[in-house]
Amino acid sequence: MNFVEDFASLNLGPGGGPGGEAGMDPATFPRPGDDEARPNLELSCDPKYMRLTCGALPSSPSLKTRFAMPLGCIVQPLRPGDETTVKTAHFGSSGIVRCRRCRTYINPFVQFTDGGRRFRCNVCALPNEVPVDYFCTLDANGVRRDIAERPELNSGTVEFLASQEYMVRPPMPPSYFFALDVSHTAVNSGFLKQTVEVIRDSLDVMSKKSERTRVGFLTYDSTLHFYSLKANQSQPQMMVVAELDDPFCPMPDDLLVNLAESRAVIDAFLDMVCDTYAQTQNMESAMGPAIQAAFLAMSHIGGKLLVFQSCLPTLGAGRMINRDDTRASTDSTKEHLLRGPVDGFFKKTSAECSRHQICIDLYTIAAPFSDLASMAVLCKFTGGELRHYPGFTPDKDGVKYAKELKNNLTRFTAWEAVCRVRCSRGFRICAFNGHFFIRSMDLLALPATDGDKAYGVHIAHDEVVPSTNISYLQCALLYTSAEGERRIRVHTMAVPVVTDIAEMYRAVDCGAMGAFMARLGAERTLTVRLQDAREAVMTKVVATLREFKLLNTQASRAFNRLIFPESMKLLPLWIFAASKSTAMRGGPRDVPVDARIAAVYDFMSASTEEILKLLYPTMHALHTMPEEAGTKDEYGRVILPPRTVLAGERIDARGAYLVDDGRRLLLWLGKMLDPQFVAALFGPSGPPSADVDCNLPHLDTDVSRRARAVVDDIRAEASRARHLALTVVIQGHPSETQLFPYLIEDRGAANVPGASSYGEFLVQLHRQVSAAQR
Prior knowledge:
Immunoglobulin-like; protein transport; 8-stranded mixed sheet; SNARE binding; membrane; golgi apparatus; 28% helix; alpha+beta
């Protein structure tokens, strides 16, 4: 089809009408279905590992400027469960074959020449000698005869066993150091007890993964408590350090011990720790000194430092005050300061931890204010993760917290890792987005990483103009496995280089572009006003749609129609949804600052699929489920009810709606819902309180069986790292307000910035595109 005819448009009504919506048909608005990645070229890695925002790269900077949208790639070097499916390539005594100039690893796109004695690097075009023990003759087509037996030559994803030259020290053992808050809040809320139970339940799996696994413990309130766990002891020996200004580590060799050898002493510690602090009235928390002391205990090995915090740190380095009241300031130019760290202690500490291969995971429950903005940098710069359970109670958060912590302790983890992304001449990697520390221009330091973390990579033009019509990207993750092997996970992909902007519009991956823009917008909120962050994202969309409209002169004459490429029809929705997400919506007072920070850091480490689900959750009407919904199809998959639009006008007071955003489930019950349906779903006791994680009862009714099948399937399909707690809310009850943020297509409160409806947003977008042309 001619590109001039290859477009879609949306009728915005006769003149937009009052308020911009008269004459518009909401049924015609673009809305998402199941996200499908644009396939990569043949022999390239699967897009689940490397997913480009646009499947074609511009041949010149001027073409990139016209396109306006960011060129990037969401990289996920590991995926849950793939540690046993990715093939391993084996080389001879000469070691891993790679280009001697640009250091690109051998891959399916290199060209063998001179009868197989040389190969030309696909990234820098340098001819390289083939090692003698890697030599193989070529067939009549110039293809190696052993290509079928060489995964590095027939697959875009492969692993290499690294040799001694890839090690700066012996491979580290898996190491976990637990810093447990034992203040009154942690004990009284049940947080400490739940944490100890999960650790105890995880020890067997941790031990089976590697006999080299090491663990250590530290507890803290107004003082620091260390525990010697040597195998020849029958009970742990506690040592108290009251010095917080310059904490030291007593008996450092006895604190991080082999799990298998010291298992009896570790079990004894876990049995006694809750009883030891059961009657504590100590409200203080020396979190900063605890992290400093844990660093001293771990720095000779590295590993994971898991910090469990129940209140605002009050003593020693890193102590904080409740600065949440600064939201009342009328100076909007300083609103972003509350979303940044209060001082440099945590950033300096995280940089030092990263240098010593220590990854920090933070679990916090403080409410109403935790100052996550200060503490989150510990996770960001060490490649860790941040989990926030405000106002923790076992009934509401216990199952979710237990599953997510156990997954962290038992999942496949890549230790002391570094990641680098290379690209062909003419392009360069100019910036990154995610949780990491940049060790050099393009080397990401990841003390520990796993299949639940993704990174954003920005691509820009180099000083040299691309000279070929195909460019290449290669991501290499060098890491240590639990077994002590040094391994390299390599993903390679080919990308066409085009001279026509029309080809770029055709090649847009709308899901990846929407997720990438949401990442950039969320990160920007940490340094600028919320309104400025939303406008920066909007400006790029306006610029690219304006350029597209100029290309389609015939279509642009259509009255009051928003013109867009078919490949980008969902982009306005993703940008609109991002502006109404927890990370970016409203003003500084409209979302609790800790909830906003947690959402920002969630965006910056989530996969494309997870971000899109957060932007536009799925909503299913359970009261009108088709007969087949909740049953299995011929492939054994549960059939889900049809999706419902996230708009208040689609909500029926006689209905029951299940909302899924990939992080939690919300079941809304209308006040006019048939009582028989409620009884069939919950039994005679009725729906539970909104303060508990609901498990639908097993009842011998059709409604119960099908609803449970739907909920169980959604939970099973969710990220393995998450448990979707189910909250039941009833129309008219105060807890019903939990539903409103999910109805993103509705207009928000009049005094909330950026609270337009979906229809109003489309009209505003059309006006800006048209104004830009004039």
